[in-house]
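Exercise 7b. Backbone tokens:
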């Protein structure tokens, strides 16, 4: 039993399950808007299962695909597979189980979510190889999370409303921007081993400017999104709060000082997602 518990803890640490909070609030925002309030709890439950299992599948596959790369990078050499805490076979098995759970959750929602689930997995798993191919891998990661609002909308309605694609684009640029910043930590290592990223290709200072442009564009898309869904005061306060939090995130890191990058990447982005969900929920509640 002790061994099972230890392996479970190690697996949860490997996939950083607590970071599901990045995309999940945006998916729940789409759920609320699609239902114009709260949908059936059954739908909410299966959306949660689909979100967590999809992300767990993607993270585990990433650790499996990048095991050799992680072992060669001093920053990542302590991860579960390079450190010998989990075997590649176990992680691949976990990936398959999580992927099947995601497909099962999609099938439990409606026919369209089931049909689209393989395409979602293709994006989620394909990201792991993008850094070997293109400096724009950050946007593929962004799309992997950005699909969440559109998928959640389909889960509720059984069809796609083009308006929700604006939130997908916003989340794609939001995630892509903070992944550019995060990749600055591996600037020298990526150049040495030939991995692609914007910091590796352009330098850290230029990469920071790209991240800022991505986040400013994300804010413009949120404004458009608010107009499309006729936000009232609470919704617009949510957009303003996201802008302030993003500004703070960029103020605590710079090309010359990456020491607080983890705080910006993990803590602030989780707060941003939750704050936006909270204000949209209040906006809908005040309308009812």
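Sequence design result:
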């Amino acid at each position: 039993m002790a061994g099972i518990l230890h392996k479970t803890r190690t697996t949860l640490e490997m996939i950083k399950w607590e970071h599901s909070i990045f995309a999940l609030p945006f998916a729940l925002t789409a759920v609320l808007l699609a239902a114009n309030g709260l949908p059936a709890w059954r739908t909410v439950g299966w959306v949660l299962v689909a979100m967590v299992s999809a992300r767990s599948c993607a993270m585990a596959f990433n650790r499996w695909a990048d095991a050799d790369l992680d072992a060669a990078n001093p920053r990542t050499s302590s991860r579960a597979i390079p450190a010998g805490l989990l075997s590649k076979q176990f992680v691949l098995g976990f990936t398959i189980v999580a992927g099947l759970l995601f497909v099962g959750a999609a099938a439990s929602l409606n026919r369209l979510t089931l049909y689209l689930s393989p395409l979602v997995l293709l994006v989620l798993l394909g990201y792991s190889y993008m850094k070997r191919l293109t400096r724009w891998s950050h946007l593929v990661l962004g799309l992997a999370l950005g699909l969440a609002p559109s998928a959640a909308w389909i889960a509720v309605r059984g069809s796609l409303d083009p308006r929700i694609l604006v939130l997908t684009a916003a989340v794609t640029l939001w995630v892509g921007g903070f992944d550019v910043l995060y990749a600055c930590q591996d600037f020298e290592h990526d150049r040495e081993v030939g991995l692609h990223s914007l910091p590796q290709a352009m330098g850290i200072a230029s990469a920071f400017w790209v991240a800022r442009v991505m986040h400013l564009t994300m804010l413009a898309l949120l404004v458009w999104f608010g107009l499309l869904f006729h936000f009232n005061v609470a919704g617009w306060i949510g957009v303003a709060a996201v802008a302030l939090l993003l500004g703070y995130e960029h103020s605590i890191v710079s090309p010359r000082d990456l020491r607080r990058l983890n705080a910006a990447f993990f803590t602030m982005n989780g707060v941003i997602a939750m704050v936006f969900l909270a204000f949209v929920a209040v906006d809908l509640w005040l309308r009812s």
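Instructor comment: The CA atoms of residues 150 and 165 lie 6 Å apart. The mean pLDDT is 89.
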